[in-house]
Amino acid sequence: MAIGGGIIGGGGHHSAVAARVAAAAHVLFLTTAVLMLVWLLHFRGGINIQSDDPEQIFNVHPFVMCWGFILLIGEAILAYTTIPMDHRTQKMVHMLVHLVALILAIFGVYAAFKFHDAAVAPDLVSLHSWLGILAVALFGLQWLFGFFAFWLPGTHERTRAAAAPAHVAAGLAIFMLAVCAAETGLVQKSAAAASAGEAKLINVTGIFILLYAVAVAVAVALRKAFFY
Amino acid sequence: MAIGGGIIGGGGHHSAVAARVAAAAHVLFLTTAVLMLVWLLHFRGGINIQSDDPEQIFNVHPFVMCWGFILLIGEAILAYTTIPMDHRTQKMVHMLVHLVALILAIFGVYAAFKFHDAAVAPDLVSLHSWLGILAVALFGLQWLFGFFAFWLPGTHERTRAAAAPAHVAAGLAIFMLAVCAAETGLVQKSAAAASAGEAKLINVTGIFILLYAVAVAVAVALRKAFFY
After folding, report:
1. Do the Cβ atoms of B179 and A180 come within 8 Å?
2. In contact, A39 and A61? CB cutoff 8 Å
3. pLDDT digits (tens, 9 = 90+) for A100-154
4. Nearest CA-CA partner of A212 in A38, A46, A69, A12
5. Cα B147 from Cα B158, distance rounded (Å)
6. Contacts of B197 in chain A (CB under 8 A)
7. Domain residue limits, chain A
8. Burial code of A46-58, b = ≥16 C-beta within 10 A, e = fewer?
9. Among A39, A97, A110, A202, which has the highest number of CB atoms less than 10 A from its own CB?
């Protein structure tokens, strides 16, 4: 049951390039993840949701948002076409990794609220928080929509084929919104960094997140999910 | 000479919805532009590139970036399919409005550097500046590529048809990068706002910029520039 088989084309030159771009995305994934860890462990004193230090509670937020909400979503997007298994398994990995990302995103929002509690700061004041909440909410809706339309049996094949392009477009748009929210968060921390070195590290992390997002989007585009 | 005629489809239900989404984008354009003016004139004391007050020099930057680099680019994207004229005119407006946007973007970068000069602040320190410079540079390349491939005569029709999807995808990606850069800039100013009212106004402006970008992207997607 290859859903949207007419949309997600395979084979040919584009597909080979797409595989190489996806491989580059994995490298960018690892680089970003390591940069984020160096920042939080070396410059910001560690990650602990149950700490008495509000800053350590806060550090949970960028950690799970970067790993969960940005990197896992990208990998879930790539998994749909790149895992060398049958299409049913690809779909399951796509769905499950997105679910883990959603749970981590909700945990990341919780960490931000808990930090505000501990630091006696108001919630949902910054543009970062508005964009982030919007991204998590839309992502949750998108996951639910996808689960009912594409995973559970009972939806007509023709309905699925018609809904697939909207699913791909909305998914990429929400991914870009999440990246946008991440960049606004990093900018806040970069401006408040304790040293020029820390600020540079944060900026470089932001650039790598962007490159990762572009690599994922290009891999999807080359898979002809978009064009034909 | 309808370039990419097989890609940019017309007519039908999707096209009517696309026209309505494009109309909504124009309303979002006006709202965003007015919010930006209220912010700069009412809260930040006016816009003047030749002022002795560094803040008034700075205000030129968000003004031309919002109007030029975000709003005009969106309108240029929409113009390609929505202006009720022959396709050659649509293309010319698309090309010329993008050129004005590019010139304004370069002027906006100049304003930021001039502000740093006047305020004795270092250049290109923030993640916002890195993302913004990247967006302007890529936009300039994209414009040059489009000018030679699609505007000047001499390129084979088949080459143009093959390059059109990449032009659309790269254009939307650069537009999203520009929006991302704008949001990071607004976040910096929101965090440093003089009052809670000003911060809220900046945040709302950021949300409207995002909604505008989404409306433009959806209008393009519905025009079938993407899917078929």
Report:
1. yes
2. no
3. 999 999 999 999 999 999 999 999 999 999 999 999 999 999 999 999 999 999 8
4. A69
5. 17
6. none
7. 12-222
8. ebebebeebebbb
9. A202
- The amino acid sitting at B208 is F
Alpha-carbon distances of B45 from B38, B48, B59, B183, rounded to whole Å = 10, 10, 9, 21
B217, A174 Cβ separation under 8 angstroms: no
Closest CA to B134 of B104, B174, B179, B166: B174
The residue to which tokens 């320190």 are assigned: B125
- Nearest CA-CA distance, residue B128 and chain A, Å: 7
Indicate yes or no: CB of B184 within 8 angstroms of CB of A179.
no
CB contact (8 A) between residue B187 and residue A228: no
A142 and A69 Cβ atoms separated by less than 8 Å = no
The verdict on domain A12-222 having CATH code 1.20.120.1770 is yes
SS (HEC) of A14-73: HHHHHHHHHHHHHHHHHHHHHHHHHHHHHHCCCCCCCCCCHHHHHHHHHHHHHHHHHHHH
Distance from C-alpha of B33 to C-alpha of B51, rounded to nearest angstrom: 22
Please give the angle made by the CA atoms of A20, B130 and A44, to the nearest 5 degrees. 90
Write out chain A residues lying below 8 Å of B176, CB-based: 176, 180
**In 3-state terms, what secondary structure has residue B1?**
coil
Would you say how long chain B is, in residues? 228
Q: pLDDT per residue over A58-103, tens digit each? A: 999 999 999 999 999 999 999 998 888 999 999 999 999 999 999 9
Taking residue B159's Cβ as centre, other Cβ atoms within 10 Å add up to 12
